[in-house]
Amino acid sequence: MKHIINCLVENQPGVLARIVGLISGRGYNIETLNVGPTADPTVSKMTIVVPGDSHVIEQVTRQLAKQINVIEVVDMTNRRHINRELILVRVATKSYANRAEIVDLAALFTARVVAVQEDSVMIQMAGNQETVADFLHLLKPYEIVDISRSGVIAVDRELVDSTPKNA
Amino acid sequence: MKDKSATEKATNTAQPLKTGAQCVIDGLVQEGCEVLFGYPGGAVLDIFNCLYDAPFQFVLSRHEQGAVHMADGYARATGKPGCCLVTSGPGATNTVTGLATAYMDGIPLVCICGQVALNMIGNDAFQEADVMGITRPVTKHNFLVRDADELPGIIAQAFYIATTGKPGPVVIDLPKNVQKQKTAVLPPTQVAMRAYHPDIAVDSAAVAKLADLINRAERPLLYAGGGAVSGNASEVLTSLAHKANIPVCTTLMAMGVFSEDDPLALRMVGMHGSVAANYAIDHCDLLISVGARFDDRVTGKISAFASRATIVHIDIDRSAIGKSVRSDLGIEGYAKPVLEAVLPLVKQATHNEWIEQVNLWKARFPFVYPEQSDVIMPQYVIEQIHAVSKGQAVITTDVGQHQMWSTQYFRYTHPRNFISSGGLGTMGFGLPACIGAQFGRKDELVVCITGDGGVQMNFQELVVAVEHRLPIVVVIINNGYLGMVRQWQELFYGKRYSGVMLSQHKRAPNEHIDEAPVYLPDFVKMAEAHGACARRVAKPEEVAPALKEAFESRKTWVIECIVSPEANVFPMIPPGAHVAEMINRTV
């Protein structure tokens, strides 16, 4: 099962390497990873999507939590949360009809065409994990020339007390 | 994390400027460093220049690995953090095994590594290595110092991190230009870290639950690990055991935390532990782990481990709770305050039936070995070390058969008297750790029990013992084999002895060397060449007199005991097996 792990860390060099090393050192492949500063510029938030069984992921989150620069670790997977990913995907267009189909499909997902060339269109699409997966599935019959994904970000649906334990 | 305002403040009060190198020395003094182990090099010349005037002792090892093991042995023997200082590149990479050893066993160390100047990092400069990258997985934390203003704070944080929570090694990677750079920043009087909060309040609800479990248990068992030692919980553990009449077994890391002379002591648990300890784990209805981590050498087959028991796990490291074995009640906290909170809530009890059963196992299955009159049995050597020292010795070991025999045939009555690489199983640990332990406990007898394999991994450090007039006694149990590997090959690989022969005798065809001397080295000559007293003994009756002479001489001694070559360590629970599959040989 895929897990979405949010990690609040001190914004310092080496912290990312420590987190990534801890996960990859156990032979788990990080599917997506997103890092950015929070409202407090000395704190960064990482969102890590990693497949693994729950027991192992719990172990990983506890190991992450005990790192010296890690402020808080939350496995978002089983919490009420909102997740989003942004993708930029370039699809080959072989004819006008072909392009029309693709643009039509994009519209169904409220995705936007952000660049057009004679033989391709670039689509910007954002959605939760399932929607992005569905969209990419439907694009399969067409030729995806290039794709960039931002990685999943996730937030709790409700405001929750995020004071780290033992603080 | 440069604190600009603090820097400016310090500058305004016109503190005299000092170099980063001087900050290192001052920081070590402030942290109470008594002895610094290390090895110089180009990237730490500035620190060594300041070290010349330092108020604490510097001990030059002969290899950086030796320096870290010495600091480690010192830390294990005293409970204080060990300190070491090495140069960049190869100096730093040579520390990795030592750091990993300390990390696995939760030993507080601070290791300062020189680094090339900041502007050279990443340029493949001379003696450059990515020390932050290399040491990250084997340290509790590591720091790269970018500015001398950060250094006093980082040193204080390094010691704070190393010694609190679950202790561990911390590396400070210190570029050469930062050592030269001047700063007015003073060491902080207090360390406060944003994301690291090792002070954990005792969870009184969990403690009440534990007391209730103990009061209702019919067959309770205490299982103490390294956390009981590092958490100084020996006394309260003993009080708890006595009050509720609970037998106690310990891990390799906790030998002596509960006196093995106590009638409630079941001694070591696990693969080569006592039959009584392993049977007790299998039959208990309440297993209370105090700072132990359910290592695979203890649990064997996890699904069958303590299958009749409610399992309580007390640990300062939350990630250790429930890691490998299910835990019915996890209590996050230091061993001592948790047990102190439990103690008054626990009712006096006798558990007569259970104690009777446990005593029956102890009586029926003592550690035994086949005695011989013409050849020294390795177990006999350990028994004699115990007898001649009257059990009053600090023992350090390498790894393998002699290590296990050292747990079985010496009885430990105090914590910190058995010093051994438990988690990582590092050969070459024993001799340098023995030196470090003797520096920490100058007036006590410190004995290194080692093998002919392990001792060769860091033999060069013997010089350090001799030049500092350390009265350590190194006892080499020489069976001509890498004994534990040979034992596994005998039991599980059809006696195909591959790569384990230290003599030329009966080697596998692809290891055969024409016209090579049958056995090398001559340990007596080797020891004497290093300036130590040395003797080889080959007959059982020679063992005790040799030990007596060495123990009484207060000089550095090496005693080589030629022992029965194919003795095995029993009992043995095969890896991943249940206690029922225990292999035991009775005489």
In short:
Chain A has about 170 residues and is of the alpha+beta class. Chain A has 4 helices and 9 strands.
Describe it for me?
The complex is a heterodimer of chains A (167) and B (587). Chain A is an alpha+beta fold. In chain A, 28% of the residues lie in helices and 40% in strands. Chain A has helices at residues 15-24, 54-65, 96-108, 129-139, and strands at residues 2-10, 32-37, 43-51, 70-75, 81-92, 112-117, 120-127, 144-149, 153-156. In chain A, strands 5, 6, 7, 8 and 9 form a 5-stranded antiparallel sheet that branches. A 4-stranded antiparallel sheet of chain A has the order 2-3-1-4, covered by helices on one side. In chain A, strand 2 (32-37) and strand 3 (43-51) form a beta hairpin. The radius of gyration of chain A is 19 Å and the shape is elongated. The model of chain A has no long low-confidence stretch (mean pLDDT 92). With 587 residues, chain B is an alpha/beta fold. Chain B folds into 3 domains: 4-183, Thiamin diphosphate (ThDP)-binding fold, Pyr/PP domains (Rossmann fold, 3-Layer(aba) Sandwich); 204-364, TPP-binding domain (Rossmann fold), CATH 3.40.50.1220; 378-569, Rossmann fold. In chain B, 36% of the residues lie in helices and 16% in strands. Chain B contains 23 helices and 20 strands. The radius of gyration of chain B is 25 Å and the shape is globular. The chains are: A alpha+beta (167), B alpha/beta (587). The A-B interface holds A 9-10, 12-14, 17-18, 21-22, 25, 59, 62-63, 65-71, 164, 166-167 and B 1, 132-133, 136-137, 140-142, 144, 161, 165, 193-197, 200, 317-319, 323.
